Amino acid sequence: MSLHSSASVKRITTHTLQEMKLRGEKISMLTAYDFSMAKIVDEAGMDILLVGDSASNVMAGHETTLPITLDQMIYHASAVVRAVKRAFVVVDIPFGNYQGNSSEALRSAIRIMKESGAHAVKVEGGAEIKESVLRILSAGVPVMGHLGLTPQSIYKFGTYTVRAREEEEAEKLIEDAKLLEACGCFALVLEKIPAALGKRVAEALAIPVIGIGAGGDVDGQVLVMHDLLGITQEFKPRFLRRYADLQKTMTEAFQNYIADVKSKDFPNSSESY
Asked: Which of 94, 120, 198, 225 is the most buried (most CB within 10 A)?
């Protein structure tokens, strides 16, 4: 029975995601960085798992996403892919591995696909990374774009504030979105932009548009797992909805374990051989 059930699981593909947009069915997307958590998220029915360079923050403790390396991203992606039976797995190409050098971009994408078994890569930026996007796509690697607040460019922006409030920047974003679609990107992430602009972009593009702080009129939503679960408490943007308070739950579990060890309650006779 288990063999039959695992064999009958229908994998999500770029084609599936396109059909979901056409049907008006919202796409669910969440980050994942390790085998155990990815397995739970996949079995819960998530459509897309993003192996985000946010691993630099939530897994490694860095202030920004910039320090994480390609080798580290492949390590995380490999663990996630081994866990997944249904979800579509997208991997961020880290900072410095695709900007300004399309040959380097292609090498990075191919390494991610070959060494991790992932299904697609994600890059941040518009016209300025066009050559890299086209080069990666020429090898048959699916590419997801990312516009709006692009965390890899944090030192250029100088702030994590909402992007594209002004019409000039909004028009540039729409132009970049159309460019990425024309290049052949299968989907686009929009981060921290006005909801009205998110709607404009989603309606202007045929490909799925996934939002994180881009309002409810886009084609799907993505959050960082540690934020959604309440493992991280310091990060409190308006777009975040916490679905659990695992920091509290875990702290209580650890404290109960400590108390039981100290009081010699654990292990008891039934927990010993």
From this structure: 198
